[in-house]
Amino acid sequence: MSASHTAMVRFTDVTKTFKGSSGPFNAVDGVTLDIRKGEIFGVIGYSGAGKSTLVRLINALETVSGGSVEVDGTDLTGRSETELRKVRAGIGMIFQQFNLLSSRTVAGNIAYPLKVAGWDRARRAARVAELLEFVGIADKAKQYPNKLSGGQKQRVGIARALATNPSILLADEATSALDPETTQDVLALLKRVNRDLGVTVVVITHEMDVVKSICDRVAVMEHGKVVESGDVYPVFADPQHRATRRFVGATVKDRPSAKVLERLRHRHPHRLVTVAVHEDGSSGGRITDVLRDNDVQGTVVFGGISEVTERPFGSLTWELAGDDAAIERCVATLRSYTDVTDLGTAANPLVDPRAEDAAAAPDPGVDGSTGTAEPGLAASAPYPVPGSTLAGSAEGGTLAPGVPRFDKPRTDGSTEGGAR
Ligand SMILES: Nc1ncnc2c1ncn2[C@@H]1O[C@H](COP(=O)(O)OP(=O)(O)OP(=O)(O)O)[C@@H](O)[C@H]1O
């Protein structure tokens, strides 16, 4: 559904202090943020960043130490338990481990919150049938949770969370225990919950892929603070904070890391430049025009294009060979309409700070300040483009027949021609 600009949740200078083993610390530290009615909002951060605490403040499972949280216009500060229960009734929640009652059937799990809310048997049965249909597991009504797959369990969790018609759904790492294919199915269901039912969805995750797939806007958290927030596409296209660059780099994997770059330079000693492919997806054709007009030979030696919020996103790294002045003219022209990162030549190498940040991305389960693990490297994707040559020996190997052209981005979110 299209989001309005009215705040469904408003955090104003919110702090949550816990007692730690070495004294009090702020798990949430001065957060000011609006989550709009009707949007899918992502909160991303490494383990311990404060995401769960922030979200638990929305349904008053935690209370603020400072600042205020408003839900649909109601300030939660100083409310009685009875008043908070009313607010909570409008908020559903799903969890990584599903939290289903093992002693109840699927139907029994979904009916449970309706029973608590005092619905009579006939109304409960009708609502449960409707929800089972909506989440696509009508045939599993009489099964017990231990007979279900992870994806089916999460569908039960979603149906249960939606039972009393909440206006907000909080999803705390809801796909983290699922395989990639099931993750996509559950994310598609969350999108339907948002679009068809008008529910505002707040997604907590440590995976930028989740944000990339379904979120309208995102907040990046580190050490209790929101370090960056905004519409998902611009955050991907121009990440400002190091933590954001790490998340983006780890999911898109379109830029060669220092190690890969070193190998590329052996095979491609001429000028290397990384050219961003954004929004309208037309930069591919324009690059070849610019090269042709300046009599510069271009070869794609690395790259990846996928989709972010259903728009093309990624970059291609080119080797440019020709007259120095002509190459400078090409780079200047390309810079007039897209982002160009100059990687220099084998003799005069330059680094890409974004690729460096991505390569330094820690394991998602680890706090961002301490990790040093390197994410998997994308194999490069050499493929022919009009007016340019193919890097026969480029990183990552051979040219598969039918490899799509770079100006036709794939829609499955994967790196073209490369392992992910
Ligand atoms: N009730 C509590 N008492 C004390 N410390 C807490 C409490 N709840 C959370 N914390 C601490 O607050 C910090 C933030 O935790 P939080 O669970 O919000 O982070 P997170 O980003 O959701 O991480 P994860 O993905 O690992 O759950 C962590 O250091 C955590 O140990």
Secondary structure layout plus pairing:
Layout: E1 7-20, E2 23-36, E3 40-45, H1 51-58, E4 66-71, E5 74-75, H2 81-89, E6 91-95, H3 106-116, H4 121-135, H5 150-162, E7 168-172, H6 180-197, E8 200-205, H7 208-214, E9 217-222, E10 225-231, H8 232-237, H9 242-252, H10 258-267, E11 271-277, H11 283-293, E12 297-308, E13 311-321, H12 324-335, E14 340-342, H13 353-359, E15 389-390
Parallel strand pairs: 3-8, 3-9, 6-7, 7-8, 12-15
Antiparallel strand pairs: 1-2, 1-4, 4-5, 9-10, 11-13, 11-14, 12-13
Helix pairs in contact: 3-4, 3-5, 4-5, 5-6, 9-13, 11-12
The structure holds adenosine-5'-triphosphate (ATP).
Adenosine-5'-triphosphate binds near residues 27, 49, 50, 52 and 53.
GO cellular component, one term: plasma membrane
GO molecular function: ATP binding; ATP hydrolysis activity
Pfam families: ABC_tran (PF00005), NIL (PF09383)
Could you describe the 3D structure shown?
With 420 residues, the protein is α/β, with parallel strands linked by helices. The chain has 2 domains: 7-249, 3-Layer(aba) Sandwich (Rossmann fold), CATH 3.40.50.300; 252-360, Alpha-Beta Plaits, CATH 3.30.70. It is 33% helix and 25% strand. The protein has 13 helices and 15 strands. The strands form 3 sheets. It has a 6-stranded mixed β-sheet with strand order 6-7-8-3-9-10, sandwiched between helices. Strands 14-11-13-12-15 form a 5-stranded mixed β-sheet. Strand 7, helix 6 (180-197) and strand 8 form a beta-alpha-beta unit. Helix 3 packs across helix 4. The chain is elongated and about 80 Å long. The structure holds adenosine-5'-triphosphate. Adenosine-5'-triphosphate (ATP) is lined by residues 18, 27, 45, 47-53. Residues 348-420 are annotated as: Disordered. Pfam families: ABC_tran (PF00005), NIL (PF09383). Residues 9-248 form the ABC transporter domain. This is ABC-type metal ion transport system, ATPase component. Keywords: Amino-acid transport, ATP-binding, Cell membrane, Membrane, Nucleotide-binding, Translocase, Transport.
